[in-house]
Amino acid sequence: MSDSLYGFFETALSKLKGRKYVIDRRIPIHLFLMILLRRSVWLVRGLFRTLLLTGKPAMVFMAPGVKLRNLSLCKFGKGVTLETGVILDGLSYEGVTLGDNVTIGPYSEIRSSMLSSLGAGLSFGKNSGCGAYSFIGAGGPIRIGEHVIMGQHVSFHAENHNFSRIDVPIRMQGVTKLGITLEDDCWVGANVIFLDGCHVGRGCVVAAGAVVRGDVPPFSVIAGVPARVIRSRNPSEPSPDKLAAMTS
């Protein structure tokens, strides 16, 4: 009986997520049903709050304590999850788009603007997510691709303060907003910081604690402060050590 019940929900979840979804049979059936009930409550909350605030319901799983601001400037795909304590502010000239099955971890914050400076906004590709206590400051445009996974305490800072003058306070010298791009299929460890202007290519692995700036080639493994390429995931690419030996 339990196996057929698992099978029923696997079929339903596969349709929702748009891919084959398999439930781990080691999860006791009564705990699975409790999780399902909790997620159902989150979905009802998401449908009701998006309907109330925008006039159009969206299929968003919304945990308790989520704070929504300027929701009319947000777009949601199917099956988006906003976990406990998330702050989501859509105020920006491009808005905030969260694709299918995007998950925003507990107590994370997404914002773009101040009253004195309208930010660009954020696009988050399908099947991607960030871990707990992450911060996405989209003053400049932030583009996060599909199938991107991130650990906890990851932050994006898509603007940079000017500080060339010493006769004017730094906070009054304005900012640059180049934006940040993180392409598809990347794995980002905990406590990573992305700085304005960086572009991380497809398939990269970013080690925990890295500070990322500049351009990162596709399929690179990077680490450090500032982050540097320590090897390539592409078998046809030489390692940095081999490359240095070849050019010396």
Features:
248 residues; 27% strand; globular; 2 domains; disordered C terminus; seven-stranded parallel sheet; UDP N-Acetylglucosamine Acyltransferase, domain 1
How would you describe this structure to a colleague?
The protein has 248 residues and is α/β, with parallel strands linked by helices. It has two domains: 1-43, no CATH class; 58-247, UDP N-Acetylglucosamine Acyltransferase, domain 1, CATH 2.160.10.10. The chain has three helices and 25 strands. It has helices spanning 2-17, 29-54, 240-247, and strands at 60-62, 67-69, 74-76, 80-82, 87-89, 96-98, 103-104, 109-111, 122-124, 129-130, 135-137, 142-144, 149-150, 155-157, 160-161, 175-176, 180-182, 187-188, 193-195, 199-200, 205-206, 211-212, 215-216, 220-223, 228-232. It has a seven-stranded parallel beta sheet, with no helix packed on it. Strands 3-6-9-12-17-20-23 form a seven-stranded parallel beta sheet, with no helix packed on it. It has a five-stranded mixed beta sheet with strand order 13-18-21-24-25, with no helix packed on it. The protein is globular and about 70 Å long. The model is unreliable at 243-248 (pLDDT under 50).
